[in-house]
Amino acid sequence: MENTSSRLVVGLLAVLLLSSFSVFAQSEWKVEDAKSKMSNPIQADDASLKEGKALFKTNCITCHGDPGKNNGLPLVPKPSDMANAAFLSANSDGAVFTKMTDGRITMPSFKAVLSEKERWKIVNYIRSFDENKKVASTVTAVKKEGQTLGVPYQLSLNYNPEESSLVAFVRGTLTDGNLAPASDVEVGFFVKRYFGDLPIGDRGGVTDENGMIKAAIPTDLPGGEEGKALAFAKLNDVDTYGDVSAKTEVSVKAVEIINLMDERSLWTVSVMAPWWLIFTYFGILIGVWGTLGYVVTLLFKLKKAGV
Amino acid sequence: MSNSLSKEEAKSKIDKYAADILRPMQSHGGLELWVMLLALGLIMYVFAYFIQLRDGLGVTAMRDYVSWGVYISNFVFFVAVSLVGMLISAVLGLLKQDWIKPITRVAEVVALGFVMVAGLVIVNDMGRPDRLMNVFIHGRIQSPIVWDITVITTYVTISLLLFYLPLIPDLAFAKKRLKNMPVWQYHLFNILSLGWIGTPEQYKILHKGIRLLAILIIPVALAIHTVTSWLFAATLRPGWDTTIFGPYFVAGAFVAGAAAVVILMYILRVNYKLKDYFTDFHFDKMGQLLVLVSLVYLYFNLNEFLVPAYKMKDADAVHLHTLFSGKYAVLFWGVQIFGMIIPIIMMLFRRFRKPAWLAGIAVFVLIGAWLKRVIIVIPTLLHPHLPIQNVPEAFHQYFPTWIEVFVTLGSFVMALGIITALLKIFPVIPIWELAEEEGLTEEFESYE
């Protein structure tokens, strides 16, 4: 009874929520004029854009997707693509900031998660996709003396065992065919695990002006009996840089591997059964069948006694 | 020689035993019809099982959810019925309940018939019976299944010996008394009677052997059905995950077995004309036994259903609602009321413990006992811990196909066939024990 009624309540709530979602979804998310007119106090310089991009990668990308790729999560209402021209022209910096601050329905409030400055930096990054208000160049390829940097890119990975860190060095190909360091290239670092790749280092981290980026390896990662693991780095934006990656073996924590099949237990093969079970089983078996054998010898005695 | 009876009286009494008990071995009224019926059932079984073997278990109604259907329910029932051999020949025998003596062989025959087929029922449930040997080659003693196979094999052996040992003096007796015996039967009796001439030493050895077996069969019989219950209770599933499953199964087994013995006693009383051996008194006593074990079983039922029903833990609640008011309610209450409560109330009164009444009640109890196993096995399987997404509708219900029905009927046919054969070839009542009780052992042995 109780179950049925509670299920009913949950069902009703779900229906109510869903219908309210769709009502909300149909209505526009209007931001008050005053808030909408707020201006961005943070200069949209390279440093702020870089930080904004990193913050976006950490906090926003899971739902909104890569800007311009329209690959956000299929929620209702659907999270807008942040590079969408219609979105960018309809929402002022203040509006984007307010939405980020307050949240609504599926969009959570980031008031408690990100500082005001951080939110404004994200606004700067988002605004950088606005064709009408191009603030600063975020093109990652570094121009050198009239040359452009382009594919193929190269990635080399250096392991520093003392401080347990990895340094990735990214170079692109100049127009003249020479290699030059590529800055602002997003590099992801990972350590291979049983069931997937564990990301390490800063998410959304990009190479510095020397084309380098560093990532710390957590030393407490279990790495088998030898304490070894395979680390690798790759350039995240495959579309721009191509499929570029490099790998190296690193030292992590050595752990003793306990093979559960090596000890006597209920789950192994019969010969590895616990001793108490073996003794019980065969003890009973020998006891009972021994007695039965004795009864059979009685039958022979019986036959003899009749002669 | 008996003190109270004269030599003449003693001789005539033994002659009467011989006449009454040995006669049905040679007069086969209605036997042909019965054997033809069994043969027909066996043909249906072979046909149905052939199809199952050829096309696989897909021809049954068993699917991913209900992977143990009527086959396993039937297996539990067969093991249950066979437990009566231990109850009657061992427990009551060791308790010196002398009235039970004429019934012991009937009980042993029922036990043998059912336990020998029980193993086959398991094979019928296998999709690949050709891999049966893997259980012995790769079986793990950590698994209840291996224990189950072990105890069933052991129980078959003990039951065979406990059937055979008390038969030895009767075989020698029948060999001397029965005229016109077929040659094969004479040879069989001659070999099996082990040259029995009834010396005091032979009696001493025989008693010793029977007593050993009677003691040994008690723990083994308890083990056989407790281990069978562990096949269920060693899981975490609602309806099976309970600590009283061992005694619950054993108590239920005594109910089923005692009912089966009562029915067979009644058939023998009428068909073999054994009114003087399976008397009103014996039925009255068997009725008392049946009502006693039924009350014990009722007590376990109260614990098994009321305690979880009082708590109604989430998973248990789903299961219990299915039984109390859901899809299985009619079956559940039908079994509990017509297979247990009404029979108990009736059997508390002496008049319903008269032979015909008691046999009728026992039929209800036995059918109830069979259906009870269905209720134990199947509803639990319909509610898996990890439901499959988008599961086909067919997984949500189970009703046996005609193949399963015929294969199951076939197992009964085989058990009844074994029982029929044993009761036709061998004397159905231990004559020497009756003679011994009357102090007529000397007359029993001294026929020329």
Description of the structure:
The complex is a heterodimer of chains A (307) and B (448). Chain A has 307 residues and is of the alpha+beta class. Chain A folds into two domains: 24-133, Cytochrome Bc1 Complex, Chain D, domain 2, CATH 1.10.760.10; 143-251, Immunoglobulin-like, CATH 2.60.40.10. In chain A, 36% of the residues lie in helices and 19% in strands. Chain A starts with a helix and ends with a helix. Mean pLDDT of chain A is 83; it is low at 135-143. Chain B has a single domain, classed as Up-down Bundle (Formate dehydrogenase/DMSO reductase fold). Chain B has 18 helices and no strands. In chain B, helix 4 (84-94) runs antiparallel to helix 5 and helix 7 (144-164) packs antiparallel against helix 10. The chains are: A alpha+beta (307), B mainly alpha (448). At the A-B interface, helix 9 of A face helix 7 and helix 10 of B.
| Total domain count of chain B | 1
The overall number of domains of chain A is 2
Query: Helix fraction of chain B?
Result: over 70%
Gyration radius of chain B, in Å: 23 Å
**Can you tell me the CATH superfamily of chain B?**
Formate dehydrogenase/DMSO reductase domain
| Largest sheet composition of chain A | 4 strands, antiparallel
**CATH class category of the largest domain in chain A:** Mainly Alpha
What number is the mean pLDDT of chain A? 83
CATH topology of chain B: Formate dehydrogenase/DMSO reductase fold
First and last CA, distance of chain A: 77 Å
How many helices of chain B? The count is 18
DSSP strand (E) fraction of chain A? 15-25%
Oligomer: heterodimer
Layout of SSEs?
The complex is a heterodimer of chains A (about 300) and B (about 450).
Chain A: H1 2-26, H2 33-36, H3 46-59, H4 61-64, H5 85-90, H6 93-102, H7 116-127, E1 149-160, E2 165-174, E3 179-181, E4 187-193, E5 196-200, E6 212-216, E7 228-235, H8 238-241, E8 245-251, H9 275-305
Antiparallel strand pairs in A: 1-2, 2-3, 2-6, 4-5, 4-7, 7-8
Helix pairs in contact in A: 3-7, 6-7
Chain B: H1 7-22, H2 31-55, H3 70-82, H4 84-94, H5 101-124, H6 133-138, H7 144-164, H8 168-177, H9 183-192, H10 200-233, H11 245-271, H12 280-311, H13 314-324, H14 329-347, H15 355-381, H16 402-425, H17 431-438, H18 441-445
